[in-house]
Amino acid sequence: MEEYSYPIDVDWTTDEIIDVVAFFEAIEKAYDEGIVASELKGKYHNFKTVVPGKAEEKTIFREFKSNSGLESYPAVKLLKDADDNDVIRI
């Protein structure tokens, strides 16, 4: 895995930062080798507790893309129709 600068809000707690970084690491995994849908769902759920709003989510996704070149939305979109055991691969 590459080392990227992750989008972080200075107002987030340490646990919130860990949840956001874990989600973006899961997105990287979806690109690199694939990730089981249930794992990505859990990380996305935790991410959404930190970033509940769609507008803020889009801003953070854009920032991550500009840092990494990786799109988060396609992986999240695949989750909608995925069974827990499916492998999400971008």
TrEMBL record:
InterPro entries linked: BH2638-like_sf, UPF0223
Gene3D superfamilies with a match to the protein in the record: BH2638-like
Protein name (Swiss-Prot/TrEMBL): UPF0223 family protein
